[in-house]
UniProtKB/TrEMBL annotation, chains A, B, C, D:
<comment type="pathway">
    <text>Purine metabolism; urate degradation; (S)-allantoin from urate: step 1/3.</text>
</comment>
<comment type="similarity">
    <text>Belongs to the uricase family.</text>
</comment>
<comment type="function">
    <text>Catalyzes the oxidation of uric acid to 5-hydroxyisourate, which is further processed to form (S)-allantoin.</text>
</comment>
<keyword id="KW-0560">Oxidoreductase</keyword>
<dbReference type="InterPro" id="IPR002042">
    <property type="entry name" value="Uricase"/>
</dbReference>
<dbReference type="Pfam" id="PF01014">
    <property type="entry name" value="Uricase"/>
</dbReference>
<keyword id="KW-0659">Purine metabolism</keyword>
<protein>
    <recommendedName>
        <fullName>Uricase</fullName>
        <ecNumber>1.7.3.3</ecNumber>
    </recommendedName>
</protein>
Length: 308, 308, 308, 308
């Protein structure tokens, strides 16, 4: 019997950091998961914890670091943590920090109507955006960094400019070709930075995220699509073209089917050109997954972003 | 043995209606649930379906009506449906239509960088907002209307201007008083319109929603809070004061606890005034629920908005 | 403006009580939610907490009572808690305790093969059953008790002995009649006990639950069904007939549709009589809800067990 | 720009197969996801679907095969499907079939009380077990098979025989050592079969599952645990020792913390030896993951079974 790859740590530490700039407050709202690996044979074989920093300690470290170093960005925060675990604990050879970030926007209160309690513009009130969840994963082995950022649960739709035809037909094929369909998906994306070394200049993580997200959305909107694969590839290549800090992008795109409803039994035409009625289906769904790579780069983002 | 209240219908019909105004498209994205009641003793006692319009038919009706009448607003659509079932089916005496609405915003593609495919501003591309879910419930008995609208899953936070002290202390009380805490909640709200009759002028449902939501958020932001109950009451009374079409509001507000982390063991101060680090807890949570009513009005929104 | 019904407390206290009987251990695993009402105007109007026992205290009380009194049954535990809050706190006039219970079964280790570590039968190892969740709600106003118990998420299926035909057909009806279909549902049930007074003999809560559940399942299995409503009524009336401690039952039964798949395009017959292939659909679904009452009793279980 | 790994297909086909053996019925209830790869460059680059078998066709195939071949086991069914796609479609070089299986048990109706409708023992009525979900993944590239089976969401607990002490203490360590704690986890496990070739004798998939599950549970129950890692390793090695058809096992085990509640402020002792009261926490949680391998075998199960 051999022990294979193993890792441990505290998952889903929900840390919220408020920064006060006078009356103006700022939020960072993260869900931080720590996974450590190294000389861990004994704890598996005999139960000796002599090399084990408790998962409870990794939790404490997350909260303490949020105070000591602040949270400039999820990526920067993960880098602090990963470096700490690998450099301070001899048995730990690798640290992987995964972070989900929830974004908040200010509640605007400046219009005249709202002032009847006498408040001026409020600077400490927020509503959670609830659109995508931003994610990042930082891995450090004492020498090299790997940073893979991304997002999940960003639901997008094109109500036209999507076709699907010219496909293989076998004995189990009944699908009708479509020349004007809805294309909708719930984007899960991960992109890998080519920053790997403390000697390199670090990307501007916040700006990079905004730009990658923008290019991805624009490519989705602007692609006249003959297949979801084509749209995916455009989304990925747009990022690689515009963002030199990114070498690899992977997507997992469920095809959120919107089926044109057959209303003929009720004497109604339901043509897309007139503005149609669709049934938004749950399951099953097409699932399209692919990696887009910069020329000459090696793929490192794991293939599976889902268990289904 | 007696049969008590009973109702039946098709739940969660996921209907999406695209409206095309030239190249500019609009979306209405609803989840519609139908519940019908009336002369339904026999189907329970003997299984005779002679009075039963199939739930499948109620589903078909939802999709057909979306085409025939369009979806001006969730409320208006529910009114069409409820009226249809009660007036067209003699055994059906009451119809209740519940609708969830998911909102979408346009993907902005107008900035110069994004045009490399040659696209002009795209008018058919959307991203789902993902913040609150808007809800409505229309009930019709052939004579009177009851419209209760609302929202759920709107997460809000004040990072200051909240205190909690001066409470009862019994032998099980260990809580420390707080003079500057985070107040966060996930708003579930329902408000009842005083429109009940086809003779009355109908409210402008879309505008009403925007305004109710705005007043609610402003009240949350602007209230210096000594208890979540006080904030709730301010949110409700602000709506009643400003929106004459609403007679009753009910809230279910979980207190999403953000606990100040004790960092003293690590030699760190964690004071709110300096911008602090919090642990965002899941369970248990305080749950504050109450109704605010216009003077002289009777409460009709059911007390329980949760099963917990 | 008037304050209407209001209630507050700590929801979802996850309390686990281990009882040791020598080497044999027993588990009670509950999720307890407390809701208190009474003289609570001031906390809403001015934020004064002078009448407010903190929700944190209600949490502490749950855990302390689990130790002081043990957890004989969810119902008995809820009765202890409700009585305490109403009798010990003058401003509190009513307490409602809701409890979810998760059941565990022992891991059987007695077969010969498993003993290689030298263990005898292990008496402290459990696997969570994961079938239905048992629920109860205890309400006390200082005088009268109301106990409503039930279950949720119990998924059942009859693979035959279900028909559906003879229903109303209007212009939106396309459904084909069915003479041998699958009937499946996810049972949510609540039943109200006629125990209301400390002077009455209390039901045996654990035995009552087992018996009610058994009668419900037997009625589901043994009813040749012409409609889900008929099956529902049989399930309810079987309980009322056999269990004199229960006066009222309410069900919310989604019709978990299993559609016969059309395999004719592939040259395959798919007849139910031969054992057929079905597509298990998610949404939409029929939703059938009704109350069954003992003669002469008044309905008190709220109509809505779902928000959809 | 290069296209990297890519795959597509229909996910979550919810297929239910009833087999009738006279009045006795049997259920197979699966959730089948298809992922195909091969010569798929063009659909990504230009949107040409000339090599694309539609995901809709893969769905139809799942349902047709359930009728044509039946579902002897999830593994056998996946093997049929994977072979079909790779051998019948020239551009498809690899097929991966993932299946979740939900198990059902019969509703026992044989006791005397239940017969009042006159039913004999009912043989077509079932209740969904709801404990673990069984999973499998079959991958075929036209030559070699890889079968990885497993389960998820099996929640287990030892109420004693677990300790945790002797760990590393750094400046962020505050955890107290524990000599008698609850050990609970929600098992996610995957095990890889050494059957890879049509020439080899195929394992008995159903029996293998029962036995692997049993050994895993026994190891959990019978291990006196000094760390969750030790328990994990025992669970894995017990499988490797007893089941020659399995070469590799991987676990992802969240440590479902049950914290002893401090009841001293209320004058109560809460010692484990007396049967104690615990708070079942949600987040954060320790997460322990590792692979156990047969000597001389190579690890092939992906490291990450979760995104957190």
């Amino acid at each position: 019997m051999i022990l294979g790859q193993n890792q441990y740590g505290k998952a889903e530490n929900r840390v919220v950091k408020i920064t006060r700039d006078g009356a103006t407050h700022h939020i960072k709202d993260l869900n931080v998961s720590v996974a450590l690996s190294g000389d861990m044979e004994e704890v598996h074989y005999s139960g000796s914890n002599a090399n084990v920093l408790p998962t409870d300690t990794t939790k404490n470290t997350v909260f303490a670091f949020a105070k000591e170093y602040g949270i400039e960005s999820a990526e920067q925060f993960g880098i602090h943590l990963a470096r700490h675990f690998v450099t301070s604990q001899e048995p730990i050879h690798q640290a992987r920090i995964r972070i989900e970030e929830y974004s908040w926007e200010r509640i605007a209160t400046s219009d005249a109507n709202s002032r009847f309690i006498g408040a001026d513009e409020v600077k400490h009130s927020f509503v959670r955006q609830g659109q995508e969840t931003r994610v990042t994963q930082i891995t450090y082995d004492g020498t090299q960094w790997e940073v893979i950022s991304g997002l999940k649960d960003l639901v997008v739709m094109n109500s036209t400019n999507s076709e699907f035809w010219g496909y293989v037909k076998d004995k189990y094929t009944t699908l009708q070709e479509a020349y004007d369909r809805i294309l909708a998906t719930q984007v899960a994306a991960r992109w890998r930075f080519n920053w790997t070394d403390d000697e390199q200049k670090m990307p501007h993580w916040e700006k990079s995220y905004e730009q990658v997200r923008k290019h991805m959305l624009h490519a989705f909107a602007e692609t006249y699509s003959l297949s979801l694969q084509q749209t995916l590839y455009q989304m990925g290549s747009r990022i690689i073209t515009h963002r030199s800090e990114v070498d690899e992008v992977r997507f997992s795109l469920p095809n959120k089917h919107h089926f044109l409803v057959d209303l003929e039994p009720f004497g109604l035409k339901n043509d897309t050109a007139d503005g149609a009625v669709y049934f938004a289906a749950d399951r099953p769904y097409g699932l399209i997954e692919a990696t887009v790579l910069r020329d000459g780069c090696e793929a490192r983002i794991p293939v599976d972003m889902t268990n289904l």
